[in-house]
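Case study B.
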Amino acid sequence: MRVVNSFLAFLLVLLLWGVKPARAQTGVDMELAASIQFGEAITFTARLKSPLAFQNASLFIHDSARDVTYSQPVTFDANGVSEFRFDVRQSALRPFTTLLWRYELTLAGGSVVQSPTGSIRYDDTRFAWQTLESGALRLHWYNGDEAFGLAALNAAQAGLQKVSSFFPPDLSQPIDIYLYASESDLHGALPGAEAWAAGHADSGAGVITVTVETGANQGILMEQRIPHELMHVLLARQVGAGYRNIPAWLREGMAALAELYPNPDYDGVLADAAARDALIPIRDLCASFSPQVDSAFLAYAQSRSFTHYLRDIYGVDGLLTLARVYANGVTCERGPERAFGVTFVKLERDWRMEVLGQESLSATLEAFMPYLVLLCVVVVFPLIGILNSLRKKGAAHG
Ligand SMILES: [Zn+2]
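Model:
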């Protein structure tokens, strides 16, 4: 309990790691160490190399992927040793992100001294990872032989090629791809993830985690899931910090277009939902997808189809313009109007008609409008004229 309480006292400091207090600082020599208990905690240990009298000490831990810094008062024992247990569940720390940490000691006179900065990557230490590298890509796996790792690296490179057909991928920072052997292994690493998730991209950290079960389908799974997650990371690099404002249907739609093998079940599910008039309105796919596996699958199928349709009409550049418009903060509803000068409602209606063959009442009316006008001119207006003249005649007789 003590550990939990001390964690609750943990203060989230919304300061950038690089921002330092105005007070002059000098260094203090310390030995730093950190150990990972995956899924539970990281224990940070420090030992003063020579005795030092000070008033108080603080530990600063910086999550570089999310650009968040935590600070925590700590104590040193008689031997000059401090130990702090950082609860990774409370901070929802993502696997394979890098933490930087340092100590600050306030001396008797009020001046502050600072330790060197330590760095640790929160690796999934449950498995013995093997690694293959090619350029900016680093492929990690623990289940399967060398050929398995090579096949996955090839799928990643083919994924990069696919992304290149949308925009030149920014590979100035590495991308780490971790392959899990089962969904339960993956979900052990991502406790908050939806039950149906078979992959995750941490775009800030450049980290991809995907499940690829070994077996007859492993090649297809690699060529679906790795390029999909690569698109998430690279699109985020392409549009910058506003990436999170891009609606889920467009983020997932573009990622699905990067898949080398589209899921063959998408078309059937789409056609069935269209026939039953059970499609999800696209505006319901702006924020996130349903936690229910069936609705989520339909959401992916629709997102892919709708995004594919937009690419057919407006091209790859149009899709990117739309993504940038969203990244700049435009609402989900207004994006197409801003990017293409067409309302969301019209685009969705056109997609339903042209791709899924759905007719809507307003579209039917619109299609028949010229004939309705003609009908009025040729039949209705003369008829009104005849009726009027008959009524006048009747009145005259009266
Ligand atoms: Zn995705």
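The longest strand covers residues 98-106. The remaining cases will be described in the next quarterly update.
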